[in-house]
Amino acid sequence: MQMICLLAHTFNDIRTKLQRMHHETVKISLKINISKTKEIHIHTPINQPLLLNYQQIEQVSEFPYLGSIISKDNGGTDRNVAERIKKARCAFGILNTVWRSTAYSNNTKNKDLQYQRKDRPALQP
Prior knowledge:
Elements: H1 11-27, E1 38-39, E2 51-52, E3 55-56, E4 58-59, E5 62-65, E6 68-71, H2 77-100, H3 106-119
Parallel strand pairs: 1-4
Antiparallel strand pairs: 2-3, 5-6
């Protein structure tokens, strides 16, 4: 699945970019899937629908992009931070069971931690 994000300051700019992208994809026998294409307006009063081949692109209030959540109200920073904290808690919950486990020796656990520290020198004591 290929994901492309088009950004513009004005409605005419985004419409032009979308038409250019459509024109270029047709040249190489690709087709933009309208049902998978989404549109979001961030901090703009314009609610004019965006059309491609006379079909309206669905307007959404938020969507995931490259691991972040983009949202209509503030670009997604609040929800994105909450989502990242949730993922970190989940990861630490999984690691916590390993660290507390008696199935692995402390030596093995320390080796794994040292290996991670070599990749990230800033974490070394």
